[in-house]
Amino acid sequence: MRTQVCIIGGGPSGLLLSQLLHRRGIDTVVLERRTREHVLSRIRAGILEVGFVNLMREAGVADRMDRESFVHEGTVIAYGDEMFHVSFQEHTGTDVIVYGQTELTRDLYDAREAAGGTILFDVDNVVINGADTDAPFVTFEQDGRQERIDCDFVAGCDGFHGVSRQTIPLTVRREYEKVYPFGWLGILSETPPVHEELIYSWSERGFALCSMRNANLSRYYIQCSLSDSPEDWSDENFWEELKRRIPSEAAEKLVTGPSIEKSIAPLRSFVTEPMRWGRLFLCGDAAHIVPPTGAKGLNTAASDVHYLYHGLAQFYEEKDSEGIDRYSERALARIWKAERFSWATTNLLHRYPDQSDFDLKMQRADIAFLRDSEAAQKVFAQNYVGLPY
Ligand code: FAD
Ligand code: DHB
Question: Which residue numbers delimit the FAD-binding domain (predicted)?
Fold first, then answer.
């Protein structure tokens, strides 16, 4: 088999890149290790920046998103029993939207299918060969058969545990990492959200986040210990703990119900440099991870897709390699700023096991400064809605 761009990974990065390239007449094959059902069962991100929304529109897959998503013009930050509002609209003229990663992934699968795009599921042992030559090829197994795809380029969109990053030799690759001493326990429940906007809450007992997917689907998270497992937390214990970590005004209004999903995610900051090796380009979680506190994971994946898509279109349409040559530099410049925001927001709102009284006073002063300073709110809002591409 031959294609122009072989895309490893059928998550949001790989599918969006495939759909955008298709609209420019560039042929792709997507290789996904799991089944479509498995990919769609993973509950992950929920907040999209305007840059992501624009890419979905450009890809021609925004109809349902435009109909069903919720626009959020700001967010609530809580500290103990106190709450204040940060307006994105007022400080940046931009909003964010609430639309689940599961939904947008479903829309992208449907669009690729309708366009007759090739997505191969359940593939095993993907190996990227000759990425540093002019004739790369990818080998893999499907239904017990060994297969080969020859291509011009390989896009490594296979997430943090994929093969693409590992293909880049250690003599070329440099990795930067910070692992946080806690995780997030998240639940999804068919209950109305506690508030019309998200609440990011600092509390003595640890961080909590009240989020949502729609008018009758809520997503809540609490900071938990890395040694916890979802089975350690009954629904009842989760709700009790959440109520203790959000202002009483919100806790009194909280509607509880059975969880329909419960999972724990560890928190990590991670960047690999460079994001290109020869004809292999890394995109999304394959190249970088942020702790989820600023809702940047999926949104940074989208900015990579933007730079790579434009670089590849420039290569095929104008015979100009400037865009792909500068891909890594452009993507990383934006990534590091999102890493900084995610790290700073995590530090601002979580309890650390070794925090001293002094550290707590600093955290409290930081939150008070954000509450009182227009300038600080503007900086927060600019980062939250997403820096320009
Ligand atoms: P992925 O979504 O990881 O997709 C990669 C795909 O590649 C997967 O489908 C995988 O099966 C496939 N793959 C892997 N290896 C191979 C291989 N060898 N061969 C073929 N295919 C392969 N972000 C937020 O903003 N908010 C959140 O609340 C949030 N929660 C998260 C919770 C969890 C548990 C995780 C892991 C991430 C979370 N994120 C969140 C981050 C966000 O979901 C990711 O940034 C986003 O999924 C990145 O998309 P991606 O396509 O780059 O990678
Ligand atoms: C969600 C997750 C986040 O990490 C965040 O900052 C906001 C919302 C969510 O899953 O809804």
Answer: 2-342
Residue ranges of domains in the chain, CATH in brackets: 5-70+98-177+269-345 (3.50.50.60), 179-267+352-385 (3.30.9.10)
Q: What is the complex's ipTM, to 2 decimals?
A: 0.97
Helix (H, G, I), strand (E, B) or coil at 328: helix
Task: Tell me the CA–centroid distance for residue 285 and ligand 1, in Å.
Answer: 6
Question: In 10 A of CB 364, how many CB atoms?
Answer: 13
pLDDT digit string, tens, across residues 231-251: 999 999 999 999 999 999 999
Instruction: Dihedral sign for Cα 363, 368, 374, 377, please.
Output: positive
- Which residues have a catalytic role annotated? 72, 200, 292, 296, 384
Instruction: With CA atoms as reference, report the closest residue to 61 among 21, 104, 28.
Output: 104
Mutate to test the pocket of ligand 1, among 17, 18, 48, 101 (most ligand atoms within 8 A of CB): 101
CB of 26 closer than 6 angstroms to any ligand 2 atom? no
Quote the pTM value.
0.98
